[in-house]
Design a protein that fits this description.
Blueprint (H helix, E strand, L loop, with lengths): L7 E5 L5 H10 L3 E5 L3 H8 L10 H11 L3 E4 L2 H7 L2 E4 L4 E2 L5 E2 L1 H13 L5 E4 L7 H14 L8 E4 L9 H7 L2 E5 L2 H14 L4 E3 L3 H32 L3 H8 L22 H7 L14 H25 L6 E5 L14 H11 L3 E5 L5 H6 L13 E6 L19 E4 L6 H5 L4 E4 L9 H11 L1
Parallel strand pairs: 1-2, 1-4, 2-3, 4-7, 7-8, 9-10, 11-12, 11-13, 13-14, 14-15
Antiparallel strand pairs: 5-6, 8-9
Amino acid sequence: MAHRNFATVAVVGLGKIGLPLAVQYAQHGKRVIGCDINTQVVEMINQGQSHVQEEPELEVEVPRLVREGLLSATALTTEAVREADVVVVIVPVVVNAEREVNFRAIDAATTAIGDGLQPGTLVVYETTLPVGTTAQRFSHILEQQSSLKAGQDFYLAYSPERVSSGHIFRDLRVYPKVIGGIDEESTQAALDFYQSVLDAETIRMASTDEAEFVKLIETTYRDVNIALANEYARFADTKGLDVTDAIAAANTQPYSHIHTPGVGVGGHCIPVYPYFLLAGCIDQHQDSQQSMLSIPRYARRINDSMAEYTVERLQGAIGSLERQSVLILGVAYRGNVKETAFTSAKLLQDALLASGAVVYVDDPLYSADELQALGYTPLTPDVEGQIRAVVVQADHKAYHTFDFSRLSQCQVVLDGRRALRREQVEAAGMAYITIGDGNKRINTNERQQDASTAQ
């Protein structure tokens, strides 16, 4: 096969990462056809509108690129693939309630791609995948649908997305692009393509399997690191120590990179992709499955258990939560991003409800109707005076100036992200506590007694 000129690119999946990728390629002179099964998304893009609010650059670039004929969208993936020199796939793979990997959406997309695949086309998957998926699962589907042979009739490669919502274009400029093909020619074709649309360094891997492995271990490392920090925090609470000060000092040693403890881990990546790595254990002998990758398994349990530990800290501060009103600040999985994928707010709500608490939420990025649709009860002015405890779950900038005096009966604020100033809370007459502060802050009963004595 001769390398194509990569003039036309089909991006399959126009979500929060797919649309920025399509824009990135079009900005570098490629004719980009975005493909998505959501016809509303397709219509918006063809009208020059972006449905992705987290990336401000899209508001300017989408209409410009559509106007210049470099960007268009369609719901007809097979037809778009027939025109394309390169197909980049960024369709979600998720885990179900049993933590099993669900390929349904990306399998359907791969089938549609195979139906339109032409000789000499480069197909690259960017979706995070279990090791072996590109070379085994997807190559089989593509070959079956197209009657072409991967490596002989078309190029097949894997290059994981490594970006975060809110600053995708910055990440594309900075983070090296990891690339691996099913053979040397596929790897080189993918390298040639990405070097034509990215300014970042490219890293050649030995295979698609190795490139898939890279994304899984870099993400799982973060989950394990956070779990370790959370274990340190819980230990610090038993010893009257402040884990934040200890971690800051430890990290002055160049080889120490301890993350920050908190009330939980959320998002599309960190709490999900360890299960993709663990999925690679299913081919092992039954007796060895639980022992292999035991640290990532345990780390997931630790991080998911932080919601229950948060409830324990609140109970230690104000006693039983039975019929007590508790406010969760922030349902987004992280600060200043309107995204609730695998948010810790859900685990917190469940743990609080199990303790008998009445749970309300606030999030400046969501309307009351949106919060209700997500399964939460929004805070309203008429219940502000009933709130007895607050948990900061997302470090939104808006909370840096939150007026806690509105919550006249609140006794304690647990800052699960260490986002607030202690003075901000204590000035409103409330106790300020965090995960891993050593349990050494004045408890609310003592605070009330001191207040009574002063009177």
